[in-house]
């Protein structure tokens, strides 16, 4: 974070400064990162004591001070060893401070903000863009999947006077959340990847998802760039909602940044990228044709940041995986390949994962899909799990291993479609599924492990990867 006095932080957050017993006062300068988890606090940092659904950050303020926190942002006075700023609501104060820090850095010139949203692919695209931005200068990018009202500001507060690019992943579980994040850090480049059924239960349907994701581009000024997916019908409609210059990406022949000659196997995906009248072959080691879309989105941003097409291609070829637990290739013993893609799942990403499995499975081995539940689908849940079960059968996946009661409809659907002779099996828990797979996997099998984060199958994927390493 940039240097700010305690008085300036109090003003930015609308809080009341309480001096600390350590002698800190209004003119004391703080520049450490901000944290909301006392376990992450390091010396010189700021701890925001948020009240959550399950716990209260104020209970951990003393631990934050013990860890070296220089400032507490609290809703009530708790620990007088260091300075405290008492605010009406800690999460709002976090966002207010992030807004002020970004405003000051932008006013100094040289900071480009890239905002990325979409139903699928945000984290992968953010990682790819971050690597390209590093070629331009110092870059701050969201860690993990920090993309909400807490993670977004925490990322923004990491910028300092030397930061050239802020790459902010902007997610939403309700209308208005992306708009809130874009007002904290107004993008000069706004990226929309897809509009799908992820979080449909919370949004209330695909049209509401469309309106929510379009918040990314609606307030972009004429001087900004909207990077939009030409292959997605809903995203394409957003061109009518923005004043910004539109830069299309996708496989569509009208896309400004497009790919051709796409070919995938277990080692990754090869394609030719075309932009601005030039072409460049790319050997992309991230598994799955669906990640070509993310690569094209990142490429469009890289070109806007000033990279050449050759530099963009070189950066893409340097990526070894999308992100932890996203199409992560593991295993290897006896030719057995484990693809752990169980960080999250939506109907679109689940379908893409199954298509990839069907494409990369070795002729001498089987394709095995280990699937858990897709969460946050609301009234669409049963219908979408049934549809995925049908797709698994129609793609001729050799064996379907369904884990968890919430995914049972997927198993039933596959049986009803014709997988009644052991091609689909169901287990209530991960331990049973692991024991079964450890016993039954054969040489040269290719295994996809996929579920929503709430189902936790990523740990099952890790166990399988270790077992067959």
Short recap of the structure:
This protein is α/β, with parallel strands linked by helices and 469 residues long. It has helices at residues 6-13, 61-66, 90-107, 122-134, 151-156, 177-184, 200-203, 206-213, 215-218, 233-237, 291-304, 309-317, 347-360, 381-394, 408-417, 430-440, 457-467; strands at 4-5, 16-18, 29-30, 34-35, 46-48, 71-74, 83-86, 112-117, 139-141, 165-169, 189-192, 225-229, 245-250, 257-265, 268-275, 278-284, 328-331, 337-340, 367-371, 399-403, 424-427, 446-450.
Q: Mind explaining what this structure looks like?
A:
There is one protein chain. This protein is an alpha/beta fold and 469 residues long. The protein has 17 helices and 22 strands. The strands form four sheets. It has a nine-stranded mixed sheet with strand order 9-10-8-11-12-13-14-15-16. A six-stranded mixed sheet has the order 17-18-22-19-20-21, sandwiched between helices. α4 (122-134) runs parallel beside α11, α13 (347-360) packs parallel to α14 (381-394) and α16 packs parallel to α17. The longest helix has 18 residues, at 90-107. It is globular and about 75 Å long.
């Amino acid at each position: 974070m940039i240097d700010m006095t305690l008085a300036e932080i109090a003003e930015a957050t609308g809080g009341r400064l309480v001096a600390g017993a350590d002698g800190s006062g209004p003119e004391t300068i703080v520049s450490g990162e901000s944290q909301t988890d006392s376990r992450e606090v390091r010396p010189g940092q700021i701890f925001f004591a948020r009240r959550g659904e399950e716990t209260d950050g104020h209970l951990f303020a003393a631990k934050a001070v013990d860890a070296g926190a220089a400032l507490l942002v609290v809703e009530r006075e708790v620990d007088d060893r260091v300075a405290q700023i008492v605010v009406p609501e800690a999460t709002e104060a976090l966002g207010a401070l992030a807004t002020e820090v970004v405003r000051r850095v932008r006013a100094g010139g040289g900071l480009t903000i890239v905002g990325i949203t979409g139903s699928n692919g945000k984290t992968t695209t953010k990682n790819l863009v971050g690597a390209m931005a590093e070629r331009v200068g110092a870059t701050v990018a969201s860690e993990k999947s920090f993309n909400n009202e807490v993670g977004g500001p925490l990322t923004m507060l990491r910028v300092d006077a030397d930061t050239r690019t802020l790459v902010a992943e902007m997610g939403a579980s309700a209308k208005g959340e992306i708009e809130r994040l874009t007002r904290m850090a107004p993008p000069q480049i706004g990226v929309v990847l897809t509009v799908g059924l992820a979080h449909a239960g919370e949004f209330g349907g695909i049209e509401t998802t469309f309106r929510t994701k379009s918040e990314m581009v609606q307030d972009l000024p004429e001087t900004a760039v909207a990077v939009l997916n030409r292959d997605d019908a809903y995203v394409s409609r957003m061109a009518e909602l923005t004043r910004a210059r539109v830069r299309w990406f996708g496989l569509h022949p009208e896309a400004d940044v497009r790919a051709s000659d796409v070919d995938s196997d277990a080692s990754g995906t090869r394609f030719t990228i075309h932009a601005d009248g030039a072409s460049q072959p790319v050997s992309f080691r991230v598994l799955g044709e669906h990640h070509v879309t993310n690569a094209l989105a990142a490429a469009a941003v890289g070109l806007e940041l000033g990279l050449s097409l050759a530099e963009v291609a070189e950066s893409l070829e340097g990526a070894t995986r999308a992100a932890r637990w996203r199409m992560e290739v593991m295993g290897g013993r006896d030719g057995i390949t484990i693809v752990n893609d169980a960080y999250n799942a939506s109907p679109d990403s689940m379908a893409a994962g199954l298509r990839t499995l069907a494409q990369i499975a070795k002729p001498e081995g089987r394709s095995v899909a280990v699937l858990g539940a897709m969460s946050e689908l609301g009234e669409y849940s049963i219908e979408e799990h049934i549809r995925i079960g049908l797709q698994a059968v129609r793609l001729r996946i050799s064996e379907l291993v369904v884990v968890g009661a919430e995914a049972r409809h997927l198993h039933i659907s596959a049986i009803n479609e014709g997988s009644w002779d052991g091609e689909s099996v169901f287990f209530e828990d991960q331990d049973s599924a692991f024991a079964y797979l450890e016993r039954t996997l054969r040489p040269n099998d290719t295994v996809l492990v996929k579920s929503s984060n709430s189902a936790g199958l990523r740990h099952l994927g890790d166990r399988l990867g270790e077992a067959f390493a």
